[in-house]
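Sample intake sheet
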Amino acid sequence: MTTVFKGNFSATAIGSLPHIDVEAACELMFKSLPEIPCWPQLPKLNVNEDMCIQYTEGLPCITIAADGKTVSIDVSQDTSDALAGFYDAYLKNDPDLFRISPECSAGFYVMLDRLNKSSQKPLRALKGQVVGPITLAGSLKLSSGITALYSEEFFDVIIKLMSMKAYWQFTKLSRYGLPVIIFADEPYLTSFGSAFMNISRERAISALNEIYESVQAHGGLTGTHCCGNTDWAMLMDSKVDIISFDAYEFMDKFLMYWREIQAFLKRGGYLAWGIIPTSPKVMNVSLNDLVKKLEEGIQFLVDKGFSRAFIKERSIITPSCGTGTLTIEEAERVMALTYELPMAMKKF
């Protein structure tokens, strides 16, 4: 871990918002996340901002259905030239060859523009995100009928593509002299170990580590968000720096791994407590409710021998997931609580 960073209950977000006004979305991120802003993914603005389309630029043999909403990989013809071209570009190790265009990430470019002009209080870190390789590979079908997750060659391509897109974001965000955090979001990990996801623990860790190393090698921090329950020990055995979990719905299940959490934090890891619900429930939850719930989770760890000061240093606060499927009113309530909760927690 080469980046000096203390969590101290600072807040960031998973990424997506339901807005179609890019400037308003960025304003909300910077206003709500005064310490660790992230760029907004806007799936309602453009289908290209869907998390499983947004990062597919540069993927060889890709085909997009007429509705623009379905992406697949065509292996009906010889793929050797397309794959050779991809690996030639990858071996150049030039992240600009794998940039995410404004057509797929309008919020990223508005964030950069804002950072270039910013005069707000000093930030503590900047956050970007890509879709995790397991989720993307599990979501993309080959024309042969299998998903890319079970194609050794295309799974490897997806891992390397996401590694370069993570690295590309890091290069853009690291210009501001702040710690940079890049998440690889893995909602598909909720299926890990089930009949729906038949890859080995070792293969999953290897795929994720390749993403993490592309950022860590340059001094950045990495995270993975999973919005449901999964084999958290598997993630803690990877090289990830920050584990982001839904602390509102799945706190008890996550804390069952307290021994692994202790080892993870001791080796330099951080917890991102996704304590603000990203469902319509958010309209009926109070700040005090969230403080109480988070305090209960922290107290559980303290009772297991963790130092409260150490937990604070190793904790950040987030919504439980992205807010792209919510109404604007609900999303803005999520972000308001994400702003208020760190101030309440830092008093402890």
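Comment: Residues 8 and 313 are 5 Å apart (CA to CA). The mean pLDDT is 94.
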